[in-house]
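Need Xanthine dehydrogenase family protein molybdopterin-binding subunit's 3D structure for a figure. Predict it.
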Amino acid sequence: MTATIPSATGLPLDRVDGHAKVSGRARYSTEIPIPDTAYAYVVGSRIAAGRVVAIDASAARAEEGVLAVITHETLPRIAEQPPLVPSLGGTAAPGQTFFPMQDDTVHYAGQQVALVVADTYEQAQHAAHLVRVTYEERPPVTTLDQGRDLAYEPERIFGGWIPGRMERGDAAAGLREADVTVDGTYTYAANNHNPLEASCTTAVWDGDDLLLYDATQGVNATRMTVARLLGLPMSRIRVVSHYVGGSFGSKAMIHAHPTLAAMAARAVGRPVKLFLTREQMFTSVGHREEQEQQLTLGATREGRLTAVRHLKLSPTSHFDDWAEPSIGTSSQIYACPNYEGAYRLFRANTMTPTFMRAPGEAGGMHALECSMDELAHELGLDPIELRLRNHTEVDAMTGHPWSSSGLRECYARGADRFGWAGRDARPGTRREGDWLIGTGMATAAYPVAPLANPQRARARLYADGTAVVQAATPEFGTGVATVMAQVAADGLGIGVDRCRFENGDTDLPTIAAAVGSAGAGMISAAVHSAATALRRQLVDSAVRDPGSPLHGADPVRVSVRDGVMTADDASESYADLLRRTMRPDAEAVGQWNPPPHDTPYGMMTFGAQFAEVAVDADLGVVRVRRMTGAFAPGRILNAKTARSQLMGGMLWGLGQALLEANQMHPETGRWANAGLGEYLVPVNADAPDVDIELIEVEDDVVNPLGVKGVGEIGQVGVSAAIANAVHHATGRRIRTLPITIEDLL
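Structure prediction for Xanthine dehydrogenase family protein molybdopterin-binding subunit:
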């Protein structure tokens, strides 16, 4: 069958959910009206290390409307603790290997030690403040300085998926042979997730069946994890999440609150809604860990890398070997014969850190790209020229060719749009009044990670010529309902206005959680598979039907456009076929299996970031005046939503560079900035002009449509481009994130 000419995919169509969101008709998980709902409020530990000696809940239980106060003494034991990251084909989602309120041990401040359930939220909140907890406290370990002497090198990190050390060649020999070496230690403050919608779950029992309305990146991830924790068959659990108010990783791992809500609902015999406060978000859904990275480069006088050494130190929890995979990309993207990378962890009084936008690459590429800029300065080379001299057409760690690249084009077109040519490389030479002006650039790279499980979607065409395509994925701000309607419409050969995408419910075909920029690729692959399978079914039905004008036609020669099947001079519409054969509808399920992990290709999305900053010479204030990003994310499914995603990532990179920071108090183990009043994020006044260039590259390895994703790549490299621009403006290398006024003064 001839391929349908794409007519919708790639177009910058408006979001189909836009009106529902701005008018308030879109229902988020906390907004679903459930009759007779009770409310749960978490009591968090006030200490970071020790044990609960006693809990006096008598005053709380005596309050009007209080239904239950649940503690470690009354909460049922979990059936099974899922692993941090399941093995391939596992039956749980990622989540820390610790479930609270199973004993009296306290591992971190804010850990759930009690749960109050009441008729109203206000009653539950008030009663929670009346719960008196007595602790036996131990000195906590929370900061890099406290944990440095306790550090160990893990054999593997991230639930055993990633090796704790990566090597090729002889890095020590490569550094000895280098004409020039650059060595820098970069320290990063911890970052916390702050989506507009705090995490929340409503649990409703109907006999032995459990319905959860959960704010999650993956409804099946929630179902699988809760099933393991409660010992329930997955067929007894349904999870609904139509709209999610942002996530950025906080709703990718499945934390304790969905299961606690289910346990509370069973205890009181009523639906229970549990939503975290803004302060509780800082202690309940993970974070990007405080970290220190040491990056050493060796190179010849001509700028050819001889060695790269990348070492990372960071805290992990008492129960998981977790570290952001920061050293992976630095081992892959530049031609260099010798590489050494290693993680060192220490056990701290913290919950297990988790994914946060561009996990690993946001920090790892910062250290690498700042070091590359410093090396270019030492060698007297243009920063782009240095990168081109070390450009590689293969994954430098495996030797496998890239499934697609486009990096050279990103450098060239990004530099042209930004106006890089003619830049005076000497720091501190450009001034406008009190402002020192500088420009910087950095490479962006983010891996395309194959997921383990098959992805499925269902397409159904009705006799009136309209279609519905379904998959379980939630909509958490990426525009998935719009984009997948475009993909489905092209796969079926109908107008996008006649196609609707339904999502966000485990009753729909299984899709994995949309994490790591994998969502667009895997969901579009499943939707495309379902739509084309249905198209083939209908074409085959027509050519076999003696009553069809297409009877006897070669299916390969049948094209479909606007719902009309055509071969030579004969044609028949889908609607006519279904009505004539007395069928109200036709449907097909499509399945896509991601490439295996041993696929002999390097799979990476590339880009180039450029920034111009102004630094007040007397006050140390940094203002980012403009940014340009050029990206090669494979096929673009919707130019408008892709640009929005990339712009959001770039502005977050600005926040990472200049604003976002949290510290744990070394004695109490509590976060210093546990609210949006103290935790700084960029606002409109901080936002500069952002220019985005999209470079489409063909890729027939990653998935059927060649989609790599744009969710993470927009942030990668931004902080390095800004830091490099600050050096160009001032002549000062700042190796901390965020860069503060104090650093520059």
